[in-house]
Every structure is written in C-alpha cells, then in structure tokens.
Amino acid sequence: MINRVIREGLEGLVLKDVKGTYEPGKRHWLKVKKDYLNEGAMADTADLVVLGAFYGQGSKGGMMSIFLMGCYDPDSQKWCTVTKCAGGHDDATLARLQKELVMVKISKDPSKIPSWLKINKIYYPDFIVPDPKKAAVWEITGAEFSRSEAHTADGISIRFPRCTRIRDDKDWKSATNLPQLKELYQLSKDKADFAVVAGDEASPTTGGSSGENEGTAGSAGPCKGPPSKSSASAKTTEQKLNSPSSRGGIKPIPKHSPMKPGEKLAVKSSPVKVGMKRKATDETPCLKKVLLDVFTGVRLYLPPSTPDFKRLKRYFVAFDGDLVQEFDMGSATHVLGNREKNTDAQLVSSEWIWACIRKRRLIAPC
C-alpha cells in the first residue's frame, strides 16, 4: 500500500486501530512516509550550501530561521537556488546560528543581489552570504526531489525539506553541485519506480487501499508472490490432517463425508467462488494507474479556511502540485483567495483545481 501511495504522489499513510478515534495531543496513531522507511534510506538528501536567510514569523520573528539553500553550477560558474529550509533546527541551534553564520543584510533589495547568484525575484532573501565558497554546508533531507520552475537549479527542488546534519567536514567543493543534483533527482525517480514495481509483484495486497483483500493474499494470480501466513497455515493444517499419525483423531472429515450429494456440491462450490474472487483481487495490482502530473511547477498557497480544504489539498498534491505555507507565500505562483502578500501570483479558485483535474491539463485561472 505504501508503494501505491508514493507512486500517486501522496505524502504517506496514517496507521490506526480500526475503531480508533482521533484525540488531540495523543500519539497512538503512526505516520508512515517515504523518508521514514528503512531508517531514512528511502529519503532524498543533498549536501547544499547556505546562500541566504529570511526572517522568521511568530516566535521566530526578528531572527534568521528560514534559510536559502543552493548548489554550484560549474558550467555557468554561478550559484543556483534549490529550496528554502525552515525545519530541522531547535531553538538552541538557531540562537547559535545567528552568531556563527556570516551574513549581509540586503532586505530583499534587487540592487544588492550579487552577480554570482542565479535567483528568481520571489526568492530574494533578507540576508545573503558575502562569499558562498566560505559558507556552511548542510545536509538537507526531504520527502522527495520535485520540480519547481521557480528555482534555478534546472527546476529541481526538495519537497518538505529539513536540515538533518550540519556538515562541518565539507566545503563548497565537496558539496552537491548541479550535475550531481540532476543525477540524484534521476536516481530518486528510478528508485521510486522500482520500489512500486517490486511492491506490486511481491505483495498482491498493494493493489487495494482499504484492507479488504487481506484474506485472499495468498491465492494464485497473474501477479505471483510468496504465500501469506493464512495460506501457509492452511497448508500446514491440511498436511496434519492427511498425515498417518493424525488420521485417527480427525473429526472434520467424518462430518463432511456422510453428507448428501446436494450438500457436497454446496461445499465444493464455495471454495471455487472464493478462488474466483481471489483471482480478481490479485489482478487489480497489475493495473498500474499512475496519476497525471497536471500541476507540475505550480506552487499554490491554499488557505486552511478554504471550504473542503483537506480534499483540495489531497488532490492537488496527488496531481504533482506543490503547496506553500503562509510564511513562504512570496514563492507561490498561484494563490487561492487573497493575493495581497504576492501580487505576482495568479489568483485562482477551487473550481479551477477541479477543472484542471477533469481536463487533465492546466487551464487559464478562473
């Protein structure tokens, strides 16, 4: 199931008891995301250079708490932006970084953007490093590499980025450059595709999303896989019943053997029907239905107060859209509702999202 979720571009799964209810502040539900699997081995990471910073909001207002991360392009000999990272640092680390990071305050002034930086207007920072070759290198981990035309690293970005390690052992030469970032992006997509194929072939239950097929997981079908525990236990029981040592104590067989012909026919027909159902459910995973990348390159600010917010968010992300938070509203290419904080963004409505999905392509804002 997690392979299907990753393939469809969704964030992850929440595992819960069937009868469990949501209780604020409780931690008895489990969240499963791509970057949680195999102790983080499925997560996408890159060693990026800190190029600038932005003021935070709320409790972090007035201090650098959002950082502009980028990489070096050896062809153009310029630095490119990859993502804005606001997670991964605790309060103590943030306080220390205010003193350790060497920054020049430019207050998003276009005339103060250095010539070595290739950046779009929506990412002009409040602070900039004077020399990127002396800047810090951080390991940035995210749910996956994504496409964002707003960033200048060949449109490659990282979804849900967070700093997982400050790489004091690396400098700008050993950090991830643009050609290496392109390779990581391609490897990430190949790895995701392989995981989905392997998951479908090895586990027939990945085709369903509601858990209805658990009882038929071990049956034969076009997508062959190892037998489930239920089928294995059934075989073991059958062997025990047929073994010479246990024939004297078999009770189920005498109950069925004296049945009338009509009753025998009913007993025989039941497994056949179950077998037919098993075959149908096993064929389902092989129908690989991949969602279209309708919203590729679209960065949308979707206010939480929007009617049907959760459903809109789910479908927009599933069709390869990027949602931005309110503090990052300046990087949005589209805004639903009020665009006072980003006059360059296109104003759209929830009907526009559904219309794009129905027509399977981007249409003019409405």
UniProtKB/TrEMBL annotation:
Domain BRCT residues, every copy: 290-366
Fetch the InterPro entries from UniProt: ATP-dep_DNA_ligase, BRCT_dom, BRCT_dom_sf, DNA_ligase_ATP-dep, DNA_ligase_ATP-dep_C, DNA_ligase_ATP-dep_cent, DNA_ligase_ATP-dep_CS, LIG3_BRCT
GO MF, one example: DNA ligase (ATP) activity
Extract the CDD domains matched here. BRCT_DNA_ligase_III, OBF_DNA_ligase_III
Q: Could you tell me which Gene3D superfamilies the record lists for this protein?
A: 3.30.1490.70, BRCT domain, Nucleic acid-binding proteins
Q: Give residue ranges for domain ATP-dependent DNA ligase family profile.
A: 1-73
Which UniProt keywords are given for this protein, alphabetically ordered?
Answer: Ligase
Q: Where is the composition biased (Low complexity)?
A: 205-235
Write out the ranges of the annotated region (Disordered).
200-277
Q: Which BP terms does GO give this entry?
A: DNA biosynthetic process; DNA recombination; DNA repair
Q: Which family does it belong to?
A: Belongs to the ATP-dependent DNA ligase family.
Provide the protein name: DNA ligase 3
Q: Which organism is it from?
A: Mus musculus (Mouse)
